[in-house]
Amino acid sequence: MIILPDRFLRALADPTRVRILALLSGDRELCVCELTEALEMVQPKVSRHLGVLRESGVLLDRREGLWIYYRLHPDLPAWAARAMDAIHDGCQGKRPYSEDRKRLAAMPPQGAVSCNV
Fold first, then answer.
1. C-alpha closest to that of 51 among 16, 86, 75, 77
2. What does the pLDDT look like over 63-110, one tens digit per residue?
3. Where are the domains of the chain?
4. How many CB atoms within 10 Å of residue 17?
5. CB under 8 A, 24+ apart: contacts of 58-61
6. Which CATH number does 5-103 carry?
7. Which of 14, 41, 50, 105 has its CB surrounded by the most CB atoms within 10 Å?
């Protein structure tokens, strides 16, 4: 996969997108409704940021029925994967990332979430 560093960094140059990436770090896959709940943001705003991350090649999405699930692209170049690991490590225990993770952890298990469609 080819991701240009400037495009990658532009995609990360927004606090909301960093929060999304912190939630998706590791092998986690989340649907839009889980992200909106964890971030306490409206769906159009979260979807717009997810679109930027997807278009830059950082995220992959898949549709399952009415829901769209997002995850980090598994084929990120090594330098980009290291940057994602550093973002994950840097966000641990810091606000607002820790609150986002708490809200996500308090949600019902994936698939049991009642998304407003």
1. 16
2. 999 889 999 999 999 999 999 999 989 998 999 999 999 999 998 876
3. 5-103
4. 20
5. 58/3, 58/8, 58/11, 58/12, 58/21, 58/84, 59/24
6. 1.10.10.10
7. 50
